[in-house]
Structure formats: C-alpha cells, structure tokens
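Hi support team,

I'm opening this ticket because the web form for multi-chain structure prediction keeps timing out on my end. I have pasted the exact lines I submitted so you can reproduce it. The total is 799 residues across two entries, so I didn't expect it to be a heavy job. Is there a limit I'm missing, or should I split the entries? Thanks in advance, R.K.
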Amino acid sequence: MKNHTNGILDSYTLGNTHYDEVYTGSKQPRNHYTSMVERFNQLSLKDFERINNEVKTAFLNQGITFAVYAEDKKPDERIFPFDLFPRIIPNEEWIHLENGVIQRNRAINLFLHDIYHQKKILKDKVVPADLIFSSKNYLKEMVDFTPEAGIYTHISGTDLIKHTNGQYYILEDNLRCPSGVSYVLSNRVALKKSLFDLFDKLKTKAIYHYPEHLLEMLKSVKPKNVDNPTIVVVTPGMYNSAYFEHSFLAQKMGVQLVEGRDLFVEKDFVYMKTIYGPIKVDVIYRRVDDEFIDPLCFRKDSMLGVAGLMNAYRAGNVTLANAPGTGVADDKAVYHYVPDIIKYYLNETPILNNVETFHCEKESEGKYVLDNIDKLVVKPVDESGGYGITIGNRLTKAEIEEVKVRIKSNPRKYIAQPIMSLSVHATFIEESKEFEPRHIDLRTFCLMGKDSEYVLKGGLTRVALKKGNLIVNSSQGGGSKDTWVLD
Amino acid sequence: MLSRVANNLYWMGRYIERAEHFARYSKEIYFSSLDAPIMETYDRKFVLESMLYMTGIFDMDAENEKDVLFKIGLDTENPNSIISILNVARENARGARNAISTDLWEAINKYYHLVNNYSVETYISTGFYDLTQIILEQTSIVQGKISGTLLHDEEWAIILVGMHIERVIQVIKIINSKLHDIYKIELAGHPVTDMSFEWTTMLRCTESFDMNRKFYRSIPNREQVLEFIMLNPQCPRSIAHSVNGIQKYLLKLNSDDSIDARSITFKIGKLCAQYKYLTFEEYKDDIYGLLNSTQDLVMEISSELEKKYLSF
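Hello R.K., no limit was hit. The queue was backed up. Here is the completed structure from your submission:
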C-alpha cells in the first residue's frame, strides 16, 4: 500500500490480537471498506485536520456537549469526541443483528409481564426467584399492573461487541433510560456536512426518522379514552449530562420538554403548568430514573419527580415510557438467563450470543471467580456508565485482593465474565496525528409500541479513545463514530 | 407554553437586549471621547466613570482603564459584566431549548462561545472595539433568527415583550447617564453651543444618530435629541416605540384588551397613549420626572407579568 500514495491510513498498524473491523490480517481493506479507505487516503493530513477542527467547532456551536464540573472553576464544556471515519456494517450482518435485538427485547418484555403477574418462569425454576425478588429494581408498585398494550420496554438500548472470532455478542441490555441516540443523529449530520462525497461511494441507510418513529410509538401507547394525546419528555433538568439529548428529542418530535416541577397530579391526572393554566398530560417519555419519579412512592428527597405520579399511572390515566421496574431485567445477573428467557417465552433459539457469565452468589461459580479474577471482568450488577468494572489482566496483586474482599462482602452484587476482546477500528488520534486501532462496541436502539417493533439502522458506535482501553462510555473518555448500515 | 419556559424566554430576551446596550454604550462613549472637543469628555476618568455608571458598577474607582474595561466586559465575577449577562441569556435559552428553533439556539450558542473564547489580554489591549462589535453583530443575528425562524406565537411574543421592556429600561438609563454627563459639563461652564458633540454621542449610544439626521436634517440639539429618542414612534430605539412594542406583544399573550385599571394591558395601554400625545414642550422642564415615572411603570408591568404568567 505504501508505494502508491502517502495516504493518511498508510501508517496504520493492525491491532494484531483483536478483530480489526477495517482490515484483514494482511492489511487489505475488507470488501465493504475498500472505497472508504480509498477516499480517506486521498485526504492530506492537513485537510483532514482542518475538517476535523471544523466538525469540533460545529459540535460546540450546536451545543452537543457535556459539562465537566470541577470545584472553584467554571464548568468545562466538552464535546463528545467524534471520529470521522465511519464504522460500516454490511446489510446481511445487520439483518442478523436486528432480528436478534428484536427477539431479545420481545422476550424481555414478556418476562417483565410474567414476573409482575403470574411468575410462571420463576415457578418453573428457569430463573431463580431469589434473583428477582432480591433486586432493588423489582418494584412492588408494578405487581399486577399491566401497562398500556403490555409494553414495558418502549425504548431499549442493547449493547453489542464483536469478538476475536468475528461473532457478535450481547454485552448488556439497557432497559431503563438508554441514552446516546441524539449522538447517532448528530454524528450523521456532521459527517454529511464535512465529508459529503463519502456518501457517493457507498449508500448507507437513512436514520433521520428515528424521532418520527419514537413519536408514533409513544402515541400508540396512549391511555384508553384519549384521542389526541399530549406527549412530553421529562428531563431532570439542564444540568443533567444528557440534557442535550432530552431537548433534542423533544424538539425533533415537536413535544414539550418538561421538568418534574412543571408537572403536578390532581385526582390521579397529570397536568403541566402553562401560562394559561394546567394542561393534561397523557404520555410521558421520562428520562428520570425510577427512584426519582415520584417522591410519594420512591425517594422522598427527590426534587426531580412528581408527587402522585405512580397513582395516576396505576389508574391508567398516563403512560410512562419506559415502565417503572424494568431495571430488574437489565440487572447483569439476569443477563445470564436471557437465552433461557428467549427459549421459555418464544420457543426460539437465541439469535445473538450471550457472553458466558459467572454469578458470584452461586457457590461453585463464585469460587471460580475468586480463583480467576486475573482472567475475568468483574462487574457490579446494578451500576451503569462503566463504573465499578475491573478488568482482571490490568489489576495489581493488591487490587485483586481488594476485588476479592468486595465480592465476598456482597456476592449478589457481582458477576464476572471472560475478558472479551472488543474489535478494533481505525480511529484518528489527535496526539499522534495518525489512525490507530481502538476498541469499539455498538449500542442499538429498539422501539416497541402497540403492534410495532423498530430498530434504528446501525446505532451508536462507541470508541474507547485511550490506547488499549476497553471501556467505551463517554464518562470514561469514550468517543463515537457514525455507523453505516449498507443499503 | 410552560410557565417555566416562558420565564426562560422572557429573561433570554431581556438579557440579550441588555448585553447589547452595555456594549454599544461603552463602545460609543469610549471611542467618541478619544478626540472629544471638550476637556471633560476627553478626560479618561470622566469617560470610564460614565461607563461604570451605565453598567451599574458603583464599587469601583475609575483609575485603571484596563481594569474598568475588564470589569465591564469579560469579568465573570461581576454579575453585571457583558459576559455574565450573555451567559445568563444563554442558560435561559438552553432551559427553553426545545421551545426555540435550532437556528436561534445555535446563533445564541455561537455568540456565547465567541465571547467566552475571546482572550482577555487581547480585549484589554487592542480588542475592545472588536469585541463590542462582535456583540452588536451577534445580537443582530440573534434578533434576525427570532423574527425569521420562530413561529409567531406566544413563545415568540414573550421574547419580544422581554426585549422591549429591557429596551425601555436601558434607553432611560442611557439618557440619564448622558444627561448626568452633560450636567457635569455645564457645571464646568461650557457654553450650550459646545454641546452638539454630547447630543451626538447620546444618539450614537442609542443607535439613532443616522435616523435623527435623516429626520431633522440639522445639527443635534437638546430638544431634537430628547424628542426623538423619547417620543418618536418611528425610531426603533425610542421609548415611545418600545412601549408600543410591549403593548403589541403583550396583546399576543393576552388578547383581552381589559378596561380593568389594574390589568397589565390597561397599564401599558395608558402608557402608550401618554407617549403618543405628549409634546416636548409639556415635559421639557421635568425630563427626569418623566423618565422615572416611565421606568417605574415598566418595572411594575414586568413584575406583574412575572406573577401572572411566569411563576411556576
């Protein structure tokens, strides 16, 4: 390759032990990447850096930022790093993923209905009852209540990785308030503006209509007896790190963005306070966690919620998306049982692989984990954002002992998995001014409404910008890429 | 429209307008003074004091020019500095992000980043004109986006109510501030004929110099200037025009043209009528009295508006 151009990808060194998304082992671009690699190689480093800077300024001006707070200082406003080289998924590969994601979320939805009603799966001992009832995310307020159209997980984010063997694996399910979709849409817009001729070379599937699908889905689960529902998005407020996304989605759907303090409940109906008096609210896409949504039911000190909301919900006068209590199913200890859950409710073979998971609370598995911490990733079952995760081969002896103590003190709280090798993708690194392999994953976004299922084509490709890092979360130094599903 | 969002939009309008007046006043006063014909106006301390007075800073001696420029422009510790006002305007826009257009939000956000990324060192050495000019231009862009990219509904109207209320208050402050300067100069014994320079500056501070020239076709004097920027409804910076604006946009929020003397619409209607039928002759001996009563009434309307529509 080196002899015909001075392309900016020429100096790229393969990530030898991981699956490289762009290149084969002999550094030939994979078929679906050939024209993309060619195009990037026509850019000079100078042009590339200019475009890269323009995109950064555009993100800043659009306010696609998150704030990093430090004491005594003005909050530092940072953009979520965006890498211009898109990740490409061939169509047949995507169809497999899409089917797998729908299958999984369909089963999870049936599972949620079951564990809040007859609990058949627990009685049949497919999933241990203790595991469910010991979860702090199992809400007694949801028992024997059926949400509109039986939908619990209206919006779910399923995280996937590609292992060394080129196979996709489910990393985790996000069934509460998965975020990131605004970045997917903003990344596409940014790439279209900056490298528009890429779109001549390859044809990617459109994604712009996600907010339309979201709106239609929310309308489909309106309470009975409401013709033209008033829909709102509830945000914790503009200091929340995902505020950009909350306002983005509300604006793109053309619905009101509200905070808890803009709402009140009277006689089991929810109203928002407008300049001309109260207006009834019918469907709430809430981006506030369960424990904060209603201070009368959950955390008493919550300033973000609406007193009486759960009563209005249980009276069937308002729909909450997602339903409260879905967190019990994205618990990392329940993750292990999802293939069984799929077989149990759908009588189908799971389309997507699960990563082998060890439960520290099971005696035999717990012992294996304690003996092999250096070979395992240990995760708390109920944290998000990549917090509390330890990766065995990065730990010192002392750190391993610390992890052991933590597990022993509360085995229910931890699961362990083999260290999965996330695939790598060529990513521009500003410090070295070169493309280098970086680990990536994929968050898909699935919508479930009354008689409708939809998966956004592609999703959010997150990239761990720190060399060798496996954690892709934005709060831990991750960036993202535009994701193309080929047409 | 949510009351909270209305509150955000109202204050966004007020702060955008306020930042612009502070920038324009400071710029005009400062640059006109550099070759001023009268000793007092030429004096640095005199000019800096006038800038501090207008921007509401009363706890600072106008000794060090760079300190004063910093305090007025880019001092984030000073809640009345242009940068602080702009930052609050932007936070209000952010709080109402989904009520405004993407175009408007990006214009405000870009304006915010331009000012926040402006080097303090450049600003106090050579960038004072440049930065104030950026502020004036960005304000025009924001105003253009308000008029051209928003649905002309209640949300749009509340922004414009805020801008017009702020404009009345700031124009009154500018007139007060310049009258105060002129009074000091007169005390020093300068003849009235030397004053056209000061009246010109007052016009420039309210962006009305060209309009005034076109209207009167003569050298500015006390009567023409005060009549123009107070009573002339055709001048978009005049008090008369601004109170008409408050009325026009308030009626979009509340179409009930009430005869109840306690209602906001009644009060603003009465104020508009007063300005419509007033002549300079009638109030020339009590300019401050008129300015004060107008300001009080507009403040009263503002607080009632907040009570009625904006509390949540």
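A quick check on our side: Residues 121 and 127 of chain B are 8 Å apart (CA to CA). Let us know if the file doesn't open in your viewer.
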